[in-house]
Amino acid sequence: MKFTIITLFPKEVDTYLKASVLGRARKNKLLVVEFVDLRHFGIGKHKKVDDTPYGGGPGMLLRPDVVVAAIKKTRTKHSKVILLSPEGELFRQEVARRYAKEKHLVLVCGRFEGFDARIKDYVDKVISLGSFVLAGGELAAMSIVEATARLLPGVLGNRASALSESFSTRQKVEYPQYTKPQVFSGKPVPKVLLSGHHQNIKKWRA
User: Fold this and answer.
1) Which of 25, 33, 73, 100 fits a disulfide with 155 by CB distance 3.0 to 4.6 angstroms?
2) Does the residue 119 lie in any domain?
3) pLDDT above 90 (res 66)
4) pLDDT score for 54
5) How much is the average pLDDT of 168-190?
6) Are 143 and 193 part of one and the same domain?
7) What residues contact residue 138 under an 8 Å CB cut-off, 6+ apart?
8) What is the tally of structural domains in the chain?
9) Are residues 105 and 10 in the same domain?
10) What is the mean pLDDT of the chain?
């Protein structure tokens, strides 16, 4: 599977996605992550990517001609283009499962006060991490890449681990887990987990 991230900060995002599980998966060619620097499509000598909003208001908006040029350069017949914005559909595990079946996800990261609304005409979906505002869409993009990539064959060495994680098979967080020491700060590990009785443990975790 291929991910393309359109962003003003490709190096910073790449640093995170080179670490840990995702870094190994990229090295082993289980997934491909590419970056499109939005600044390359900027206007004029100074590669301007934003401008003031019509009608007044605070901040700056990403220009539609700049963002759409980057999308058109990136999109193929296999692409699904996702605009990252607080107003979008909430990203959930079920969305990650759908995206894991795609061949190519294009994630468009915002900055400043947001996007010119006309950009939405050139994307397939608007997705949000939640009802809060971040400086840009990069954290959302990294979250979507990681949540989706974990579901791809071979990315996690133990496939059972991916299937048992929170929200994978049920719409709630994973059961509480414990490790050594057996007693910590006066609080012991639940006795059922020490019993060796797998049916009782399974029932306790349900």
Assistant:
1) 25
2) yes
3) yes
4) 85
5) 78
6) no
7) 5, 7, 9, 12, 13, 109
8) 2
9) yes
10) 90
pLDDT band of 84, cuts 50, 70, 90:
very high
pTM given for the model: 0.84
In the structure, what pLDDT confidence band is assigned to residue 76 with cuts at 50, 70 and 90? very high
Chain center to CA of 115? 19
DSSP letters of 90-123? EP-HHHHHHHTT-SEEEEE---TT-B-GGGGGG-
Question: Is pLDDT larger for residue 111 or for residue 158?
Answer: 111
DSSP annotation string for 173-199: PPPP---SSSEETTEEPPGGGGS--HH
Closest CA to 16 of 156, 162, 139, 112: 139
Nearest by Cα to 155 from 100, 196, 109, 112 = 100
Q: What is the DSSP string of 59-97?
A: S-EE-HHHHHHHHHHH--TTEEEEEEEEEEEEP-HHHHH
**Within a 10 A sphere around the Cβ of 153, how many other Cβ atoms?**
10
Cβ–Cβ < 8 Å for 114, 135: no
